[in-house]
Amino acid sequence: MKLFANVVYTASAHDLAQLPPDVGAEIAFVGRSNAGKSSAINTLANHTRLAYVSKTPGRTQLINFFSLSEGKSLVDLPGYGYAKVPPAVKAHWEETLAGYVSGRESLRGLVLIMDARHPLKPGDERLLDWYAPTGKPVHCLLTKADKLSRAEQNKTLKLVQDKLKLARRNATAQLFSALKKTGVEDAEKRIAEMLG
Ligand code: GDP
């Protein structure tokens, strides 16, 4: 059965104290605001508009949990890098994100969503730095790939892979497009592997 066939919203957390019990296996989606995270989640979940749960007013700054199957969850982390956020709110997000990715035992891997035209921005690198000590894997989706020519897509993928390798990240990368539905099977396969 498809990994995302029975995905349902289960819970939200505003801070580390509100997280559901740290049991089972989960995969977290993360990325800069507007990178295309909600679109990627919805594409993987077959147009259920699931991630728009995370976009409803009041839920954008929350960690949103979705159940995939018994003991397996998808976690939608708040987007970062949005310029208009007040410093105190930003500090709270950073602390919560850093605490979650570095301390969550059931977290099996991160799916880092980056606009293929703007990969590995400082916010993305910071997140990779917080997560690196865990040694756990990251899979990068270079989304909105449809906005690049084939040659530019290949160049971007190679550049990102080279940078990840140079920085000794435990990370893989692929091209993705929610609009054209490209890269969906590869993403599903990698996510299933990470979930175990
Ligand atoms: P989020 O803030 O990271 O959740 O980003 P969204 O999923 O809301 O996407 C931000 C904007 O990028 C929206 O206008 C989407 O329609 C657009 N977008 C997302 N994915 C793609 C894609 O694969 N191709 C194109 N062309 N646009 C996309």
Mind explaining what this structure looks like?
Helix content is 33%, strand content 23%. The protein has a seven-stranded mixed sheet, with helices on both faces. α3 links the parallel β5 and β6 (138-143). By secondary structure, it is α/β, with parallel strands linked by helices. The protein has a single domain, classed as Rossmann fold (3-Layer(aba) Sandwich), CATH 3.40.50.300. The longest helix has 17 residues, at 87-103. Guanosine-5'-diphosphate is lined by residues 31, 33-39, 79, 143-144, 146-147, 177-179. Guanosine-5'-diphosphate (GDP) binds at residues 31, 33-39, 79, 143-144, 146-147, 177-179.
What's this entry about, in short?
The chain contains five helices and seven strands; from the N terminus they run E-E-H-E-E-H-E-H-E-H-E-H. The protein is of the alpha/beta class and 196 residues long. It has a seven-stranded mixed beta sheet with strand order 1-3-4-2-5-6-7, sandwiched between helices.
